[in-house]
Amino acid sequence: MNILSLSGGKDSVASYFLCRHEIDCIIYVDSGVDFPSIKKTALMIGSDFASRGGRFEILSFDFFSGLCRYGWPSNRCRWCTSRKVSSINAFKRSLGCDVVSYVGIAFDEQSRCKPGFEYPLVRARMTEKQALQFCYSQGVDFGGVYRYFHRASCFCCPLGGKQHFRRLFQYDRRLFQYVGVLNEYAALSS
User: If you compute the radius of gyration of the chain from its CA atoms, what whole number of angstroms results?
Assistant: First the structure.
């Protein structure tokens, strides 16, 4: 079975458009703290794929319990990424068949590639910038999130530093305020 991991961001969405005829299933892992427009994009792509007869699976993990247990993610402890990967791997094991995983890593990031995976953007020699333009040409605008951010993972991701939160404040003040609530929640839990 060929499975695409879909984050809802530019690289995985561009990968979908390039390889949708090759895949059997799409997996989206909902962390509960994805940019709303990115989640909406993932659900739109998943619905499109399901309408074509493909399988669309939504997995999830509890970001809040991880935040209480481990604190904010950091470069040294990216527990959130580990939970996403664990969710995907558990799903793949549950299938009881051979799985080929398709991952959205762009040509200019191919140093991140690992053996045993398919990388549609690398195969197409498509850079991150080209992937974004390709998505726009397919009618996907991600709610304008890429006008503010180079990466559109979780809106509360501390790995982007102060610049990320300055841009978040400009992009959506409600999300920015919600990060403050999460921070208080984490502080109370430690």
Answer: 17
Q: What is the pLDDT of residue 153?
A: 80
Q: In the block, which residue shows the tokens 């409600």?
A: 174
What is the pLDDT at residue 89? 95
Q: Which two tokens stand for residue 53?
A: 């007869």
- Taking 70 as the pLDDT cut, the residues of the chain under it are 189-190
Q: What is the DSSP letter of 55?
A: E
Q: What is the SS3 assignment for 102?
A: strand
Q: If DSSP codes are grouped into helix, strand and coil, which group holds residue 61? A: coil
Q: Helix, strand, coil: what percent of the chain each, to 5?
A: 55, 10, 30
The secondary element (H helix, E strand) that includes residue 4 is strand 2-5
CA distances from 35 to 8, 98, 130, 151 (A): 9, 32, 22, 11
Residue-level pLDDT at 190: 60
d(CA 185, CA 172): 20
pLDDT for 186: 77
